[in-house]
Design goal:
Number of strands: 22
Radius of gyration: 43 Å
Helix content: 25-40%
Structural class: alpha+beta
Shape: rod-shaped
Strand content: 25-35%
């Protein structure tokens, strides 16, 4: 601001008489001061009185830095304005007499020279306090960071339906963006995981994830590795958090001393690491507690603010939903696995001289039950029946239909019929039962005394016979009838040599069927299977699944059997 006047008596222009100045600036919301060429106050408006916390009388005639020592560093800038006449803006930090608390204040001041006839008569200062504005900007930036943290959490946490993976993603995500160390502790999914039960009042959780920033990551492991069970006393911060279902802010020493599993040595270790403050927030979903998220800050990090607590709570709520989905998924899959295990029980060995190995692999991790099945049924005279079947479709309905097929087959196996006759009667019984799901089936009756295998197929893929090296594998074409449940019948039995040491390999189409490839080509690759004379059947199945099961689009069931080699055996007679 440049003001002109006619004279400059005693250093100030005649323009600045009290009435004129008061009329111009008394009502101005900005703080205004007029200084003479010696930088002494000659006028202050009411806004500046309020800003500095001093009346006008305490200003007039005194140098500006005598009134506010915090402004002493501005003397050089003011003298430069007097010297060159160029206005300047300065940011000032310090304290004034109006501050109710010892916080540092921030002002923005504009200095302009007052001239008359080209001579400097003094200065005008216009001052605006920006302390609150700066704080608002800082809070706004902090809020923006928190919003970004919560927004990105949606794509960084809960990428799978595995509970431990979700817990690890949560711990990794908050370190170091929100905490120096983070631990995720969850209630065990099943009671009795640990042989030793906790003491009364103690809450036992399983540490699902632990993460530290930099060197703290390794050092924090002394407080409980993932997978371990940690006991929390009744007065611990974690227990209080879970009981109240509210965040608990606790200093690290009290947090440790309230944990029954921790010793004085560990408390000393935490101090040595500089761990200072813990914020514990509950992990809940649908009103049920799932566990707790512990966020720890070390020396050098800011203390948790109220906004931090709110953000941590919101983050825990979102993570709780993901953890609930993972836990429910695991629970449902546990049921599915038990159902599949009960419906597809491992066949018992028909005779000490017969080896059996089986595997079942679902194509989709989301569907653990299906219609594939296998079975081995001991028969009379040292023979045994092997079955491999595949009910159309997936899910529980297919599994139930598979169980019905299997039960009917076991019933018919006791009648000592050839394989094709068993298929014919099974087809008729299925049609009469109203079972509306068709199924393919391959039956093989092995006579360990005669060295012959009788095979019949109801729409199923051919078996593979793997002879001891150097002969190798042979895919044996057998007459193929229609699938079971169609009512058409028309099955036939083929006899295939199968002596001691020869492996009979049976499978479902999930092992070989590939989109865009002829099924005969896919089956033909099985001719490359080999097994040394002393090889294990389990190793053979590992080889098969590794080579052919990686890109499977359907469930896979495989069965391998072999008559143990030994001295020649003779079929026992009825008198024996």
């Amino acid at each position: 601001m440049l003001l002109q006047a006619d004279t400059c008596d005693e250093g100030m222009p005649s323009f600045f008489d009290p009435k004129t100045v008061a009329a111009l600036f008394d009502g101005n919301p900005a703080a205004v001061a007029v200084l003479d060429h010696e930088l002494r106050y000659t006028y202050v408006n009411p806004a500046l009185e309020r800003l500095n916390g001093l009346p006008a009388a305490a200003h007039i005639g005194r140098a500006f830095f005598q009134v506010l020592p915090a402004l002493h560093g501005q003397a050089a800038a003011l003298r430069e304005v007097l010297a060159d006449g160029k206005p300047r803006e300065e940011t000032i930090q310090g304290q004034n007499w109006a501050a109710a608390e010892p916080d540092r204040r921030i002002w923005r001041a504009t200095y302009s020279r007052l001239d008359t006839d080209g001579a400097a008569c003094g200065l005008m200062a216009i001052v605006v306090e920006i302390t609150d504005l700066t704080r608002q900007r800082e809070e706004l930036e902090e809020a923006r960071g928190h919003v970004a943290l919560l927004s990105a959490a949606a794509v960084r946490i809960g990428t799978t339906l595995d509970m431990d993976t979700t817990c690890r993603e949560l711990a990794v995500y908050v370190v170091p963006a929100f905490a120096d160390v983070a631990a995720v502790d969850v209630f065990p999914s099943e009671v009795g995981h640990s042989a030793r039960r906790p003491a009364p009042g103690v809450v036992r959780l399983r540490r699902a994830a632990l993460r530290g920033d930099g060197e703290l990551d390794e050092q924090a492991q002394r407080f409980g590795h993932p997978g371990e069970y940690v006991d929390f006393a009744a007065d611990s911060a974690v227990t209080r958090c879970l009981v109240k279902n509210e965040p608990v802010l606790d200093d690290w020493e009290n947090h440790l001393s309230g944990r029954s599993a921790y010793t004085a040595d560990r408390i000393t270790a935490s101090r040595a690491l500089g761990l200072r403050e813990a914020l514990i927030v509950p992990l809940t979903a649908r009103g049920r507690p799932l566990g707790a998220l512990t966020l720890i800050r070390a020396d050098g990090s800011p203390a948790f603010s109220d906004q931090d607590v709110a953000v941590a709570r919101e983050l825990a709520v979102r993570a709780g939903v993901d953890l609930d989905h993972a836990r429910r998924y695991d629970h449902e899959h546990s049921i599915a696995r038990e159902l599949q295990r009960s419906l597809l029980s491992e066949p018992r060995g028909p005779h000490p001289h017969v080896e059996i190995a089986t595997r079942y692999r679902p194509a989709d991790e989301g569907v653990l039950v299906g219609g594939d099945w296998f079975d081995v049924v001991p028969l009379q005279d040292g023979r045994h029946l092997k079955a491999m079947g595949d009910v159309m479709g997936h899910g529980v309905e297919a599994a139930v239909a598979m169980s019905q097929y299997r039960s009917l087959l076991r019933l018919l196996a006791g009648e000592d019929l050839p394989p094709h006759r068993i298929l014919e009667q099974l087809d008729a019984m299925v049609e009469r039962s109203g079972l509306d799901r068709a199924a393919t089936c391959l039956l093989a009756v092995v006579d360990r005394f005669g060295g012959v295998c009788e095979v019949a197929s109801a729409g199923h893929l051919p078996p593979v016979f793997i002879d001891p090296a150097p002969d190798g594998a042979r895919i044996v074409p057998v007459p193929v009838g229609p699938p079971l449940g169609t009512g058409f019948g028309g099955y036939a039995t083929a006899s295939v040599p199968c002596g001691p040491g020869t492996v009979l390999f049976m499978y479902t189409d999930g092992l070989v069927e590939r989109r865009g490839e002829d099924i005969d080509v896919s089956v033909g690759r099985l001719a490359s299977l080999t097994l040394p004379r002393s090889g294990r059947l389990e190793d053979l199945l590992d080889q098969v699944l590794d080579r052919f099961g990686e890109d499977a689009e359907d469930d896979i069931a495989v069965l391998a059997s072999r008559i143990r080699e030994g001295p020649p055996v003779v079929r026992p007679t009825p008198t024996e």
